[in-house]
Amino acid sequence: MQANQEKTLETSLENITSRVQDLKTALTSFLAKLEHEHQTLNWPTVLDNFALLSGQINMLNKVLRHDKTPSLKEYVLLPLNLKQDRDEELEKMTEGRVGAFNHEVVPNYLRTKLVPETEERELVLIKEAVHLTPEVAQRQINALNKLSNHVLDIVNSAREEREADTTGGRIPFTTSASNDTSVLMNSMITGRGLRQMHQVPQPGAYMRTGPGMVPGPGAIPPQIPRPQDQHGPMNKIPSSIKTNIKSGSAMHPYGHRPGMQ
């Protein structure tokens, strides 16, 4: 009976160690990506790593809750040999974290209680929770649920948008409509759909109706400039001889016509 229990315990520990090792490998890989590839790391890759870690944790919980896994709380682990010398096998198993199984590391690795500082903080929180009234506790619960639902809605919305982007199912955003474009082109080319604006002519204004201008009432027609003679005025030589042409019927100053005695 005892041999079977020891064999079952050994098999369970091997399964637990294997699952913990897988979880550790995935976590180490994710931390390395965050440290060295943070500039090129995208959100879908981060979500994939979180999904992998979540799957590893679920598998570990299944192993711990399995019917064939013995309850580890019923077993007591006691240090049988403590030494100050360096243990290479222990250092290799712990990947260099523990070099010797001495009195300094045993209390930390084999403790069954929390750190004293953590215990004090936990006691303070327990006292505060005990003194809360049901009304205050319910208000805090409602506020926490509201905040959690809001964060969940944001996460679900971001996930739906990401899935739509990756699968190409998003409806393309349209920036133009063919019907509106056709109406606009017809309006520009043929004037279809445009209302004619009737303007009241002002006095003294000209209204354009076509190729010519129609003067309005009381308008002054524009002055048309006369074309100038291209040759200009003819140059005349002024005469120094003055002539006095008189009529033949004019009377002679001496009372008789010229040529008469």
Account of the protein in words:
With 261 residues, the protein is mainly α. The protein contains 7 helices and 2 strands; from the N terminus they run αααααααββ. It has helices spanning 2-36, 43-64, 88-93, 106-109, 116-130, 134-167, 178-190, and strands at residues 206-208, 213-215. Strands 1-2 form a two-stranded antiparallel ribbon. A hairpin with a 4-residue loop joins β1 (206-208) and β2 (213-215). It is elongated. The N and C termini lie far apart (197 Å).
Comma- or semicolon-separated keywords:
two-stranded antiparallel ribbon; 261 residues; single chain; 2% strand; mainly alpha; elongated
Strand portion: under 5%
- Give me the oligomer status: single chain
> Any idea what the shape is?
elongated
- Class derived from helix and strand content: mainly alpha
Instruction: Tell me the total number of β-strands.
Output: 2
Biggest sheet features: 2 strands, antiparallel
Number of helical runs? 7
Low-pLDDT regions:
205-212, 229-233
Radius of gyration: 56 Å
